[in-house]
Amino acid sequence: MEAVLNFAIFLPLLGALLVAVVRNELFAKITAVSLSGFVLLLALILFINFDFSKEGFQFETVVPWIKTLGINYHVGLDGMAVSLILMTALIFFAVFVWSWKIEDRPVLYLSLFLALETACIGVFAALDLFLFYLFWEAMLIPMYFIIGFWGHDRKVYAANKFFLYTFFGSLFLLLGIASVLVYAYFTQGRISFDYAFLSSVDYPLWLELIAFLFFGLGFAVKIPMWPFHTWLPDAHVEAPTAGSAVLAGVLLKMGTYGFVRFSLPFFPEASKYYAPLIFFLSVVAIIYAAMMAIAQNHMKRLIAYSSISHMGLVTLGTFALTPEALNGAVYLMIAHGLSSAALFFSAGFIYDRIHSYEMDRLGGLARYIPYFTVAFFLSVLAGIAFPGFASFVAEFLILLGTYAKHPVWAFVAGVGMVLGAAYSLYMFKKVMLEEERVPPERIERWKKLKDLEPHHVITFALILFMALLMGVYPYPFVKVVEHTARLVLGG
After folding, report:
1. What is the pTM of this model?
2. Residues 162-188: pLDDT tens digits?
3. Of 17, 265, 321, 360, which one is least surrounded by beta carbons within 10 A?
């Protein structure tokens, strides 16, 4: 099974190189869909074979790399990592299917997405901090070019802002890694980037408090937490549809993943010390971003602010430090990844047909594209935590676990969830209903619209089926996710 994980990490990169060398459009599309589908199958095999009753990491591979610095190629999975890799593989497969008809430089486009898939899976699998940082930084390059080449009007501005913000956060993450590495070297007499070794070191409180801030700044920018969030709406608005789906569905989860993987086990006392600050920033993000979403007229900007609000709920659950809330936080990473990707695909479909994201220019579409209307409505329900979808299970666990220790924070977060339902349903109403406010010339144009095509149907079916399966039958997914809570919190 160790080989399966390594194949899942590097097959997309091999595909990217192959596509770039051959430089044939049809070959590029077939290769991207086939390889990403095979990676999805490998991720599913890893998930099915994961033993949630077994402690520690599984499917590990350790190969010495730079021995003098204690750097190894070390990968392995716990419950959170295997779940996020399955979600990542599913979203990338959906992206390649969705992009089947791309005409603008498809070879370069698909090569960049394949390379990005390797970086994303590598981040979730790495158990060596040098390797983790390498994958973390490698992710920036393809996403920068995806936004900058295939984005909309202000694409270069958005790409530069995305790169500068995330690179700024990465510098603090590097300082955090250096701080724990140096302390471990002077106290243990050994230099090593190994996760198990560094997590076993007993750091003094003063170092925990400093290193937590370094790691936390790096993760907070990536999530993004308020007030480091301003790059995200611009990046989403200008990014192409597939770029927005990966950005919201996968890349935002790396920050919250980092908090669970590194901050909680490395700095347990600092995590408790800073928990009130994290609660405050999380609740501000939940309420503020929800209010900003309500004020938007641009579909993608509204969905972007909804992502900030939902990720605030994830950080709240993470630092509630209860098993239920942590399980819910990890579950919401996956649930939000699916629902946000579906919502951005919905916005992208509308743009492909009408060439506008402005809700004032839409309306009354439900009569003319009924199949898309169903897919869009289900995507909205998945995003607002409607019972039967994965996000309902996740948000219920977060509120349950948070309320046990912090009832006031849980109540305020619940208000943000109500606002989320309000702006999401408002968006659907403005875009798909309200036919009476649409002028006659637009009605004539709407009558000529083409409904879902096969590549759209496959994309929505995959994502919504997974969201429904995790909502209707959450048991196996919760048990796998619970493996991480036991690893981090004990018990």
Report:
1. 0.93
2. 888 888 888 999 999 999 999 988 888
3. 360
